Amino acid sequence: MIVAEQKSLDELKTLIGSAEKVLVVGCGTCVTVCFAGGSREAAITSSSLRMATKLDGSPKQVTDVTVQRQCEWEYLDTIAEQVKDADVVLSLGCGIGVQAIAEHFPECWVVPGLNTSFLGLPVEQGVWAERCAACGDCILGLTGGICPIARCSKSLLNGPCGGSEGGHCEVSPDIPCAWQLIYDRLSSQGKLHVLLDLQPPKNWRTSRDGGPRKIVREDLRLASQEG
Amino acid sequence: MSASSSNNGYLSGSNLERVLRAGHFAVTGELGPPQSADGEVIRKKAALLRGCVDAVNITDNQTAIVRMSSIGAGTILVQEGLEPVIQMTCRDRNRLAIQSDLLGAYALGMRNLLCLTGDHQTFGNHPTSKNVFDMDSIQMVRMVTAMRDERIFQCGDPFKGPEPRFFVGAAESPFAAPVEFRPYRLAKKVKAGANFIQTQLVYDVPAFATFMEKVRELGLHREVFILAGVGPLKGPGMARYMQESVPGILVPNELIERLEAAAAPWAGKSKDELTKEDKKARAAAWQAEGIQICIELIQQLRQIEGVAGVHLMAIEWEEAVRPIVEGAGLYPRPVVEVQSTQAAGAEVAHG
User: Fold this and answer.
1) What sign does the dihedral B46-B51-B53-B56 (CA atoms) show?
2) A-B interface: how many C-beta pairs under 8 angstroms?
3) Which of A174, B140, B185, B350 has the highest CB neighbour count under 10 A?
4) Distance CA A89, CA A113 (A)
5) Which range of residues forms the domain containing residue A176?
6) Is residue A6 part of a domain?
7) Stretch B94-110: mean pLDDT, rounded?
8) Cα separation of A41 and A12, whole Å?
9) What is the pLDDT of residue B107?
């Protein structure tokens, strides 16, 4: 899932600026699961802003609403009236949600309430870790299901660098060395020979380096949209 | 026409390649460029290394701190008549930049290259920068040997003019984790085309001997010249720091005790009890012992089958290089002339 975390109240206040009517929009999907931008967080953010602006001497009208998924037009249609009524929309969706609102409501001034962090999972209660870099050319079949693109600090493809020590990365003792994990896993499965092959330089075109990406599935398109 | 046909069978014809291929025990040094545009620093350090080493590594923004470029500093070294080993990391350049810089480096007279992954930028003085890591060091070795031997760019396009012909090296850290994988990682570098290897600093000779045993078992010592990394310890403080904080460096307690013993006359005294002269004398005692330890390490490493030389890293202590090389009986350095094909053939027949 997409993992995000909330911006500070101070930054939110700056982002809202002089707007009077603020609509906080939560999202019911990834950011709900990682406790950053669901209906609960939208309500808390909304009341925090009401209190803070009141204390600052310029109370604002802050309301909140949460949609099932900010990244789909049909869910955004359900809040069209509220969006139209607001001076600013504070999206608690991920970066995709913020942009979906901007794209769907051309006249709406939308600002982000979250920092979208990474694609990952909760490894324990309250702890999330990155797992995928969305590079567009999955190599997990070569590495025992552990991604060195996302999890090695240098995205190395041919084994660990010289900075691996005691199972952790040279960057921080809090970062497990992805190549130690790969080595241990392949070792326990008797598949270390996989690591002896030379992996050629990666084709980064499928990653962000090829420019913004898009997938077109002709088999799924509606006849009226083709051509 | 490929330059190789006029190279007497050498890959690059560098001094380092000639010394190693003639069977001499090689000595390479290391020079860290300044954090400034001062070329005089390079000339001063070069003077300390002249005649003591077969080639000099020039670091590439080592520990991710901005310094004069290795190719810029290497150009000064060439002007000074010393032979550089250009270090090139994957951290700061993509495959376009690496290749174009190497074309320039070759045109400026550089003949040796060391391909490195590079320390992560969060260590250095620009921790907020973006890194590159378009390729890893093994892929870089493959790329530059293909530029030389197949006369192609990484994309596969052929060279239309002269190709850069480097003697290509890579690094290995024998004691970094996972230790069991390190000889195989070395094998991958050899498979990618590495001609020489320089290792991380070795202080634990028995541990290194164990690594070399595996290297020999894989037959790698016959395919690549292995230069063991050595460096003088300046005192017990530096030794302890390396033991505790630098990944992949094993410093036996015995060496730390030797350094402490060298400063026995000043032992147990607090900072305030020591005069300036005391501190100077203590530092000199530590340094003398550090140099002696380094000499002994070289002598021990030389006995290990498959060790073709040493890479002497005395960064910011270049004065130590000459006494170490002399003390190890490796001075003066051999002069191996570029021989004509016939003469080279004759030498082989005689020898």
Assistant:
1) positive
2) 95
3) B140
4) 9
5) 137-210
6) yes
7) 98
8) 14
9) 98
pLDDT class of B221 with cuts at 50, 70, 90:
very high
Instruction: Give A155 to chain B, closest Cα distance, Å.
Output: 7
Of B120, B134, B181, the CB nearest to A159: B181
Q: Note whether A74 and A99 are within 8 A (CB).
A: no
Q: Is residue A123 part of a domain?
A: no
Contacts of B178 in chain A (CB under 8 A): 160, 164, 179-180, 183-184
Same domain for A158 and A62: no
For B117, which of A161, A177, A204 is closest by C-beta distance?
A161
Domain containing B49 — which CATH number? 3.20.20.220
Q: What's the structural domain count of chain B?
A: 1
- Residue-wise pLDDT for A126-169, tens only, equals 999 999 999 999 999 999 999 999 999 999 999 999 999 999 99
For the cut 80, the answer to whether the pLDDT of residue B320 exceeds it is yes
A132 in any annotated domain: no
Residue A179, in any domain of the structure: yes
Burial class (CB in 10 A: 0-12, 13-18, 19+), A39: middle
Residues 6+ apart with CB under 8 A from A136: A206, A207, A210, A213
Contact B139 A160 (CB under 8 A): no
Are both A109 and A145 inside the same structural domain? no
- B314: confidence class by pLDDT, cuts 50, 70, 90: very high
* Residue A225 pLDDT grade (very low, low, confident, very high; cuts 50, 70, 90): low
pLDDT, position B351 = 30
CA distance B36 to chain A (A): 26
Computed over every residue of chain B, the mean pLDDT equals 94
Per-residue pLDDT tens over the stretch B143-181 = 999 999 999 999 999 999 999 999 999 999 999 999 999
Say if residue A75 is in the same domain as residue A14.
yes
Collect all residues of chain B within an 8 Å Cβ-Cβ radius of residue A157.
136, 139
Interface residue ranges in chain B relative to chain A, Cβ cutoff 8 Å: 90-91, 95, 117-120, 122-123, 131, 133-139, 142-143, 154, 171-173, 176-178, 181, 184-185, 187-188, 191-192, 200, 247-248
DSSP A137: S
Q: A14 with A107, same domain?
A: yes
What is the β-pairing status of strands A114-124 and B307-312?
A: unpaired
What is the chain A residue with the closest CA to B181? A183
Chain A nearest-CA distance from B178, in A, is 6
Residues A110 and A162 in one domain: no
Query: What's the confidence (pLDDT) of residue B269?
Result: 85
- Picking from A118, A150, A183, the residue at the C-terminal end of a domain is A118
Domains of chain A: total: 2
Q: For residue B188, which phi and psi values (nearest 5 degrees)?
A: -65, -35
Contact (Cβ atoms closer than 8 angstroms) between residue A96 and residue A70: yes
A20 in the same domain as A97: yes
Residues of chain B in contact with residue A166, where contact means CB-CB under 8 angstroms, are: 177
Domain of residue B81 covers 3-350
The verdict on A18 and A110 lying in the same domain is: yes
Look at A226 and B254; give whichever has higher pLDDT: B254
